[in-house]
Amino acid sequence: MKYDHIFNFRTLSSALLLVVAAGAIPATAQPSPPAVLVTTAEMRDVSATAEFVGRVKAIEKVDLRARVDGFLGPWLFKEGDLVKANQIVFTLDPAPFEAALAQRKAEVASANAALDYADLQARRGRELIKTKTIPQSELDLRESALLKAKATLAQAQAAQQAAEVDLSYTQIKSPIAGQIGQAAYSPGNLVGPNSGVLATVVKEDPIQVVFNVSQRQLLQERRAVPKGELDTILARLRLADGSTYAEPGKLDFVGVQADPNTDSIPLRAAFPNLQGVLADGMSVRVILEVGKPVQALVIPQSAIAQDQSGTYVFVVDAQNKAIMRPIKAEMQRDGTAVVKDGLAAGDRVIVQGQARVRPGSTVAPSPAPPV
Prior knowledge:
By secondary structure, this protein is an alpha+beta fold.
């Protein structure tokens, strides 16, 4: 009896071996091919590009100031609002200026009355001199008084006009349409010509970007583009967050003088800015597309990898096997790469999942979503 458990264990082990040999227990399953995303190498129109550091500049920008002294009234706008041309945005207390204008009008009326009297006296004197009723000296005095009355009236009218201008200055208007910034003074403050800028209005659509290029770069661009056609050069912007501005722009100015300190020439491009994405003073990267587009083989930069042997991509063949291909490529600013050698149009390249792929291994490819 003491050997029964040994017999049972050996019997059970033999039975298990027979079951495995007969295939009752399946062997370990093969791992499934790694899933990858692929895209097709394709021919596209590509232009030569050059990149520069630029600064956004408003085409029109106006600093609003008080032209007369007065107490600031309620704001007629909200900071950041879009204002129209000739819209009143600030007012000054008009009462002192209205009183001054009323005084000047009274002076004009008085001068008019004095002129009428002097004119009457002069006309009478001309009649009386004919009969020698008055001496010539009396007529001379009357003619002189008439001239003086005319001058006094002209002076009074000029003073009235100045008072009207001063009164008009109590309404501070925006001379341009644009976005108004932060106000420097609250209502009730005494402001005047020495108070500085009350607020700034900026016209932001369209908007300009100013940047400098070296003389060498400008010469290269002029050789690539026919004379007089620099405005055909397409300009694009890369913003501070790395995104590309949606609207392209065009060159509208090329400087005529080089800065001897930097050996550069200023250029300017105009961009639509209907959504107000670009703000005056913003720093951007300017990308110029120079020359006519040419056909080139293009793939996403995400497909490209590097090791000690150089640059390569994984291509998926008809049997869904991953093949490593060395390539020569030129990176573009829009996230693509122009392939000079190593690929052909129609090749399927892996753009995601390369870390799980080994050369010659089978993969499970899916089309990458369009960018």
